[in-house]
Amino acid sequence: MLPNQRHTLLIDADDTLWENDRHYRASTVCFADLAQALGVDRQRVQPLVDHYEQVHINIGGFGPTSFTAALLDTWQHLTHEFGREPTDAELDRVRACTGRLFSPQVELLPLVAATLDHLASRHALVMVTKGEPEFQLAKLQGSGLAGYFEHARVLAHKDVAAYQTLVTDLALEPAVTWMVGNSPRSDINPALRAGLGAVYIPSNHTWHQELEPLLPSPRLRVLNRFAQLIDLFA
Q1: Percentage helix, strand, coil, to 5, in the chain?
Q2: pLDDT tens readout for residues 40-97
Q3: DSSP 169-230
Q4: Above 70 in pLDDT, residue 1?
Q5: Distance (Å, rounded) from C-alpha 19 to C-alpha 219?
Q6: Domain spans of the chain?
Q7: Are strands 124-130 and 151-155 parallel, antiparallel or unpaired?
Q8: Spelled out in words, what is the top-level CATH class assigned to the domain 8-19+106-232?
Q9: What is the per-residue pLDDT across 160-188, written as a single tens digit (0 to 9) for each?
């Protein structure tokens, strides 16, 4: 338990508040099925998708639009290996693999709403996620959780500079500000480097590119479940 005072909790959204990565994994499986039917070894699919996704993330940020573009580029790469251009029908099937990703309806993780209800009566809550702003904010509205947050910020990238900017823009006090999330690379380590506290809540469905060793820090806490925030920030 932390000292009994008002804290500011910066809370990630995807795979912290609601399911996300498992839908991307399902889309990748769908795409791999198409590639296998084309005659491609399934083991080749993920590295190619990762390559093209990073290209599009660097251009337009993280989200379903970049991911869909990455799958389309991967498909074109594969068909070129067979000496031809992709057909319109093939590209439509690729797009169909990511249709679910564009839905603003989300599946909340266990006890998220009840936990936020408790925390919001005692602390300042700010949603801090990355992705496509319009889409992420639509998911927040569709989740029914928007009323618990004093602010919502959708960032292109979560790095040290981004957290430092948040501290300045929202006039936060680093000593009582904590980033809560499931990603060591985006949520935990850069927040610690920016002088904030961090609460790591592992997910079974964290995107593999978001995983890295946690920085050792006296301001790092590790929980098993989102609901344990109630005891930590009593």
Answers
A1: 55, 15, 35
A2: 999 999 999 999 999 998 888 889 999 999 999 999 999 999 999 999 999 999 999 9
A3: HTT--GGGEEEEES-IIIIIHHHHHTT-EEEE---TT--GGG--PPPP-TTEEE-SSGGGHH
A4: no
A5: 27
A6: 8-19+106-232, 22-102
A7: parallel
A8: alpha beta
A9: 999 999 999 999 999 999 999 999 999 99
Give the CA count within 13 Å in the CB-facing half-sphere of 228.
13
Rounded CA separation 224/232 (Å):
12
Report d(CA 52, CA 68) in Å as an integer.
10
Q: Are 133 and 15 in contact (CB under 8 A)?
A: no
Question: In angstroms, rounded to a whole number, what is the distance separating the alpha carbons of residues 215 and 212?
Answer: 9
Mean model confidence pLDDT for the chain? 95
Beta bridge partners of 180: 11, 199
Kindly report the number of other CB atoms within 10 A of residue 196's CB atom: 25
* Short-list 23, 22, 30, 49, CA closest to 96: 30
Residue 109 is classified by DSSP as P
Where helices occur in 82-111 by DSSP H, the ranges are 88-97
pTM, two decimal places: 0.91
Q: Which two tokens stand for residue 15?
A: 């795979």
